[in-house]
Q: What sequence folds into this?
């Protein structure tokens, strides 16, 4: 024994030397299999073992690699090793992390006796190979003689196990890196093949061929969902799977369907033992199905099949999953490219439709071009457009109001039917009434009862697919103007994108129809307007915001004594006309320049005036021309009022003469009545005194009326001189309120005033302006109900670029009737209200204010009171 131990001791350096040589060898070419063979061979040689096993395990205890020196039949090795790891010595060593030495296997329960083992092994030695606390594997040595292994052998193997663990771990790391590099190279080669493809089907075909070439898998298939996401389809395949190209099954069928449904890799060693196997090919024995995942979305499956059992291992799963990620990205890019191309084509088609609907306003031409573009865009074969009649404006139009206006590609029988019967009982009318786009991908499928008769009629003409688009105005009205219908002889699948595109086209066509109809209506209205402008006796001149003449008629040229014909001046700048007018009508130039300045500054209220252009008197009216809130220009209406002014002068002369002749007798009557009242008052009875008072009141009223008429006439003719002086408007308004206070007290009215103390004085005739204030205050008191408010206000303002004072008198009465508002400042114009006057007070106010070179105007609304406003000059008197 001593001699044997010495011999073993002397052998130890040789053992470690061999292990070191093995380590160096594996460092130079560190394959895991070479490392295991070297370690086992050295151990068997140095211990004199007849047989040996060295296998590695994973964390769960399953065998991952093995090297045997035994006479076991190869087909039985795996089963024997699994039993040994479960019930035998190696399993005990692995579980307890302890070495074991069995001198006689027949006397130790840890030894598993295998009846079919060809050699009777009597002694055994087993040590764990540990890396820290982790078990890498188990080394077991056996011999046919009992007590062959001694304690020294056990110590030797335990000492060598650390070196074995280090060497094995290095080999494992290198082996993993090599396998990873191989996977990366294979992945790179396959990605390189598919990277240049921009069509999803081309990506699938190229990927299948590249995987078969570089990964070594012969039977490859790529499976993609169909458009409706209800079935999976084999789009490309190689090897045994080529005959299955185009095979379609529901998403929940087969191992492939399970991979899609669960979003998990499916590794099936024996497909015939799997209840979900769909028997795509009779020779398939094992299958690996890897979903192509993009986040939570499954875009397809990479399917690998083999005619051998358990043909795919963990390495295959890793490579297949890496390939699936790369394929998903390539397919996604291809789909994105295809969708981008489709969107580009759609935009081009929409642009073509938009051009067709915008380049022409002829409705028939627009509809024909639009229909052709829509048929081509959606790959249909025929179509029609139906519109409602022009006078159908209600939202409750019946289907009978639809009439076909354009069609293409319809069979003769269908064309004849809609030509004679219209669209009242067709699917087009149904879409029109529902106001919603409709796409039926397959008319042969069961349809709702509400449209079944209509779809049956379409199938009788040979159609299999239908699309209907209501032509709707934009929100908020969504009024339907018609319908666009498309037909195809092959079924198709419609997406939400297609419906959105159809709706967009419907809005475009509806806009085109509306524009065309508006254009026709505009042409009609333009013809009527041109006839009206030519036939009117008034001059018409429209000036745009850019200062160009947009409309002019012959009468305006005649009234302004301008040369040429209307067409000579259209489009010309108004400055060219002003240069011509400046020679013989400078007052017209001033009026036009002022109106242009007002229009440019946004001063929109109408303006009017009158000028003499010998031998004519011409009245002009300037009106703003607006479309919504947009200013288009200024319209000037010119009217020859020469005859009217002559008649007015004759009337005024006659009135002046009559009034003047009445004044002296009225003054005498009034004086006599005053004399009678003063000298004979005590001699008259009560009834006689009452009659005398009535006579005095009426004669005084008639005399005031005569004086007012004379004052108005003198002011209009300029025969009444103005006694201008600086006047504090606060003082003048206070006097007016004082004079009117008794009347307001009787009616319970409240008088208010607002005159800032810092206002400059007005340069006016105080007596005339005082009478203006008294007239306006008297009117307000007369027409304001009891308990009302009358307010007089003065503030700074501007008129014609000059600084002025703006004086206003407001009430909260019933307002001025609409029928007299425009004639309110004319003589003898009165309303029908109770307490109305003679109609001379406001006429006097107008001429008195205009005598100062200013203006007076009124603002009133029914039930919201009335405000009279006039301007007064504040300039200083000229230097003497």
A:
């Amino acid at each position: 024994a001593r001699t044997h131990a010495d011999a073993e001791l002397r052998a130890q350096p040789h053992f470690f030397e061999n292990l070191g040589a093995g380590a160096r060898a594996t460092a130079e070419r560190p394959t895991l299999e070479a490392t295991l063979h070297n370690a086992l061979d050295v151990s068997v040689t140095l211990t004199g073992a007849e047989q040996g096993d060295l296998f590695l395990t994973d964390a769960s205890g399953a065998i991952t690699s093995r090297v045997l020196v035994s006479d076991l039949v190869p087909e039985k090795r795996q089963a024997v090793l699994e039993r040994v790891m479960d019930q035998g010595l190696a399993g005990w060593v692995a579980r307890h992390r302890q070495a074991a030495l069995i001198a006689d296997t027949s006397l130790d329960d840890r030894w598993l006796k295998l009846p079919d083992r060809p050699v009777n092994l009597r002694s055994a030695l087993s040590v764990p190979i540990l890396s820290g606390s982790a078990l890498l594997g188990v080394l077991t040595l056996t011999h046919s003689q009992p007590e062959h292994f001694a304690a020294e052998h056990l110590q030797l193997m335990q000492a060598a196990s650390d070196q074995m663990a280090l060497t094995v771990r290095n080999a494992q790391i290198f082996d993993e890196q090599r396998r990873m590099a191989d996977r990366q190279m294979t992945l790179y080669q396959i990605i390189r093949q598919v990277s240049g493809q921009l069509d999803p089907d081309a990506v699938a075909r190229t990927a299948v061929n590249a995987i078969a070439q570089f990964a070594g898998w012969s039977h490859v298939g790529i499976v993609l969902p169909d458009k409706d996401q209800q079935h999976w389809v084999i789009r490309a395949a190689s090897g045994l799977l080529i005959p299955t190209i185009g095979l379609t099954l529901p998403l929940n069928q087969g191992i492939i369907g399970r991979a899609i449904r669960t979003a998990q890799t499916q590794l099936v060693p024996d497909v015939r033992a799997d209840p979900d196997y769909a028997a795509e090919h009779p020779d398939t024995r094992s299958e690996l199905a890897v979903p192509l995942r993009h986040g939570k979305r499954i875009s397809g499956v990479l399917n690998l099949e083999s005619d051998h059992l358990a043909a795919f291992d963990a390495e295959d799963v890793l490579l297949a999953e890496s390939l699936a990620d790369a394929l998903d990205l390539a397919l996604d890019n291809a789909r994105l490219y295809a969708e981008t191309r489709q969107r580009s084509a759609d935009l081009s088609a929409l642009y073509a439709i938009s051009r067709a609907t915008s380049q022409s306003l002829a409705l028939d031409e627009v509809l024909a071009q639009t229909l052709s573009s829509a048929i081509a865009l959606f790959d249909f074969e025929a179509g029609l457009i139906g519109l409602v009649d022009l006078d159908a404006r209600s939202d409750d139009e019946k289907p009978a109001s639809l009439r076909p206006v354009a069609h293409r590609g319809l069979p003769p029988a269908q064309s004849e039917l809609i030509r004679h019967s219209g669209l009242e009982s067709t699917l087009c009318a149904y879409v029109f009434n529902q106001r919603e786009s409709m796409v039926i991908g397959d008319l042969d499928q069961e349809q709702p009862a509400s449209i079944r008769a209509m779809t049956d009629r379409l199938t009788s003409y040979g159609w299999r697919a239908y699309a209907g688009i209501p032509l709707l105005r934009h929100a908020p009205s969504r009024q339907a103007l018609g319908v666009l219908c498309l037909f195809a002889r092959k079924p198709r699948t419609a997406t939400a994108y297609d419906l959105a595109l159809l709706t967009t086209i419907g809005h475009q066509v509806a806009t085109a129809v509306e524009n065309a109809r508006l254009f026709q209506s505009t042409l009609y209205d333009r013809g009527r307007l041109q006839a009206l402008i030519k036939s009117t006796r008034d001059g018409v001149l429209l000036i745009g915001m850019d200062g160009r003449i947009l409309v002019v008629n012959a009468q305006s040229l005649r009234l302004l004594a301008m040369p040429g014909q209307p067409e000579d001046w259209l489009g010309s700048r108004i400055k060219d006309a002003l240069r011509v007018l400046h020679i013989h009508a400078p007052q017209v130039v001033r009026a036009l320049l002022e109106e242009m300045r007002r229009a440019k500054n946004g001063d929109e209220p109408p303006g009017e005036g009158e000028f003499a252009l010998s031998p004519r008197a011409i009245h002009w009216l300037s009106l703003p021309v607006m479309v919504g809130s947009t200013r288009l220009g200024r319209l000037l209406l010119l009217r020859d009022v020469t005859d009217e002014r002559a008649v007015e002068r004759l009337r005024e002369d006659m009135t002046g003469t009559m009034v003047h002749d009445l004044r002296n007798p009225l003054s005498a009557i009034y004086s006599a009545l005053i004399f009678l009242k003063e000298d004979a008052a005590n001699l008259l009875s009560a009834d006689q005194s009452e009659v005398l008072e009535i006579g005095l009141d009426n004669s005084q009223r008639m005399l005031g009326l005569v004086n007012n008429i004379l004052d108005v006439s003198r002011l209009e003719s300029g025969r009444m001189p103005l006694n201008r002086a600086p006047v504090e408007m606060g003082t003048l308004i206070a006097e007016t309120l004082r004079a009117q206070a008794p009347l307001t007290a009787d009616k319970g009215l409240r008088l208010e005033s607002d005159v800032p103390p810092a206002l400059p004085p007005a340069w006016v005739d105080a007596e005339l302006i005082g009478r203006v204030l008294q007239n306006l205050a008297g009117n307000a008191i007369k027409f304001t109900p009891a308990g009302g408010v009358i307010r007089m206000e003065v503030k700074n303002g501007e008129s014609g670029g000059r600084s002025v004072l703006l004086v206003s008198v407001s009430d909260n009465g019933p307002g001025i009737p609409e029928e007299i508002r425009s004639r309110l400042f004319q003589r003898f114009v009165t309303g029908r209200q109770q307490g109305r006057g003679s109609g001379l007070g406001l006429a006097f106010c107008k001429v008195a204010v205009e005598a100062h070179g200013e203006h007076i105007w009124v603002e009133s609304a029914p039930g919201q009171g009335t405000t009279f406003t006039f301007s007064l000059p504040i300039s200083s008197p000229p230097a003497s």
Q: What stands out?
A: The chain has a mean pLDDT of 80. The chain has 23 helices and 28 strands. The longest helix spans residues 314-359.
